Amino acid sequence: MLLAVAIPLLYVQCFRPGASLDSPSSTDRSASLGPELWAMANVDPGAMRVTAATTPLDAATAWSRQLDAPVVAPIVTDGQAIYVALKDGRLLALSVEDGSDLWTAPVPGRLNAAPTVAGDALYLGLRGGRVSALDRATGETRWLATVGESTSNAPAVVDGVVWVNGGRKIFALDTETGRELWSRGLRPDLAFGSPLVGSDHVILRTKNRVLFFDSGSGSKSFSARVRDAAHVSVGHGIVVAVTPQLTVTFDADSSLPWWDHGRNALAWLHLLGILPELPVPPHRWSQNMVCEPRAPVIQPHQVVLACGDGTVRAHDLLSGDLLWEASGAPIVGSPVLTASGLLMAEREALVLLDPESGAELDRRPLDEVELREFFVTASGIYLLTQSDRLVALR
Questions:
Q1: Which of 7, 119, 216, 326 has the most C-beta neighbours closer than 10 Å?
Q2: What is the distance of C-alpha 349 from the center of its chain?
Q3: How far is the C-alpha of 290 from the C-alpha of 313, rounded, in Å?
Q4: Whole-angstrom Cα distance, residue 219 to residue 242?
Q5: Could you say which DSSP state residue 12 is in?
Q6: Closest-CA residue to 201 (of 182, 226, 218)
Q7: How many angstroms separate the Cα of 244 from the Cα of each of 203, 306, 334, 349, 379?
Q8: Per-residue pLDDT for 15 more than 50?
């Protein structure tokens, strides 16, 4: 009787066909990358937080701009304009050259996440289940799509597809029209944060899991139990998930056995003594790290992990071996790897570390400036203060 119930359940969960990207997107538009850009909150679609820009910490203040409303999302730039989401419902474009207004546009639904720069467009995830594309030069709306799910996270844009976390669903939209290419339900999971896109996979985090989807078909390829992941990144074939207790990594091409979608039914059979205990999904390595975690920095040979208290560790990306550890004052935001070194921000200073040893290379005190966040491009270092003042150093 038990097998008669379990076998149909396994068939439905394991062999049911997945979604398919049967109607390809119209262009190859992707999130813009380069040393002059900071196109997403974490730099790139995989959230590796690496830029080729240099960081001269002795740069002078080029301009300073007091914003007239609180900033509600990370700031991004395309090298010509800086895009700032304000609490009063406006998206403001400022000149990189002098901080003056280029345009301002009312956002059709409060913007809680940074826009994503891709080609000549900005892509926004809005409250109320809507996604929008704006003209980068004017702020005019190109299209507005309603997907009916919560979409207040920044979308990822890769190879002509806008990847959107809808909370209970993941959506793939066409970059030119907003047309839905496919969607996949996540119930009972509720996803948090922006989708992360690697070479072949899209990654989402939920309260208790990290989910992998095939970027071509939309089918779920892997699911790992990771509770309370604060940050997830993907790069160089590795997925890094950081929680307040530990860091755990997976191969980006990890897959589940054919029976795993029926794990709950099989677990009941194990409890009844019919089947042996089920193996846990595989991971590459894990390390305990109890702290307030910051977003990791992923390089080909190592991953840098930082805590809010100023502790910084570098681990071998493939083995997890500790390469170096450093400690300092509490930090603001997350580190970023630049061409000059690993840049971190304390409340009243910028600090540059050697990414190979953790030794301090340089320090820039910031008198009477209390930092909230920063970003780096070839045109300078940009600081947002706690009082919503934007400062350009170059």
A1: 326
A2: 25
A3: 12
A4: 24
A5: H
A6: 218
A7: 20, 11, 15, 25, 35
A8: no
* Lookup: tokens for 286: 């894990």
Residue given tokens 């190109």 in the structure block: 142
The amino acid present at 116, given as its one-letter code, is T
8 A C-beta contact, residue 333 and residue 373: yes
Evaluate whether 213 touches 219 at the Cβ level (below 8 Å). yes
Dihedral angle, C-alpha 154, 157, 162, 163, nearest 10 °: -60
Sheet holding 331-337, edge to edge: 331-337, 342-346, 349-353, 360-365
CA dihedral of residues 184, 188, 194, 200 (deg, nearest 10): -50
* Per-residue tokens: 154: 């920044």
Tens-place pLDDT, residues 276-286: 765 566 889 99
What is the pLDDT, as a whole number, of residue 260?
61
pLDDT band for position 271 (cuts 50, 70, 90): confident
**DSSP 8-state assignment for residue 375:** E
Task: Report the top-level CATH class of 2-393.
Answer: mainly beta
Across the strands, what pairs with 157?
A: 162
CB 30 within 8 A of CB 37: no
**Residue 6 φ then ψ, to 5°:** -70, -40
| 109-160 per-position pLDDT tens digit | 678 889 999 999 999 998 888 999 999 999 999 999 998 777 889 999 999 9
